[in-house]
Design brief:
208 residues; 5 helices
Length: 208
């Protein structure tokens, strides 16, 4: 392959001295939001595997000398994650850098860092975009937003309304109630307390 650097002719405005301002049209936010939403793990491996384990059920009342009921942990589903690499390169000529009267070309590394943030934010958003897309199934063979995630006791979990609903007071109220009514793999209360409401920006004022 032959790699060509971008010559000065591609940035004629940056070489001119009759512009009052050349705007740097990049990301306004310096820090990504995705770490506020998801737990992020580092890895140096090409593949990573995760699994789950259901604990034990409720204690049962027994009589004196009676053998207690047996309840052992149960292994759940395995999930293998394949690591992907994302990259970008910018090639500028020495003359182009020297002729730039604005200093913007010297900020290309900063622009690349902002590009990395935008890429990460887009990848995180894709999780929600794909949450009901059957091309993206979880370890249990279900989409993220499903009403029938299987439990170890033969029951099912639900993490969306039976019918998709627009955000509203009664819908949010029902969602909080559903969260707090969630049970574990043995049908016991899971004690889930919702802490965050993720919304589309169009729902900002409804959420408020």
């Amino acid at each position: 392959d032959i790699f060509m650097s971008a010559p000065s002719s591609q940035y004629v405005d940056l070489m001119a001295d009759n512009f009052f301002k050349i705007h740097d049209d990049t990301l306004m936010a310096d820090e990504p939001y995705y770490t506020n939403i998801l737990t992020v793990h580092d890895s140096i491996h090409q593949f990573e595997k995760m699994s789950g384990l259901a604990g034990v059920g409720h204690l049962t009342q027994i009589s004196d000398g009676e053998e207690p009921a047996e309840s052992n942990p149960k292994q759940k589903y395995d999930k293998t994650y394949t690591m992907l690499t994302y990259s970008i390169i910018s090639r500028l000529t020495h003359n182009g850098m020297a002729d730039d009267t604005t200093g913007l070309l010297a900020q290309v590394p900063k622009m690349q860092a902002e590009s990395a943030i935008k890429t990460l934010e887009t990848l995180v958003a894709a999780i929600f975009d794909r949450s009901q897309n059957t091309s993206y199934l979880g370890a249990d063979g279900k989409v993220l937003c499903a009403t029938d995630h299987p439990r170890m006791d033969g029951g099912t979990f639900s993490n969306r309304p039976t019918v998709n609903s627009d955000l509203g007071y009664t819908v949010l109220e029902s969602a909080v109630t559903d969260f707090e009514s969630t049970v574990d793999d043995y049908g016991d209360a899971a004690m889930l307390i919702p802490k965050m409401l993720l919304i589309h920006q169009a729902n900002r004022f409804m959420a408020a």
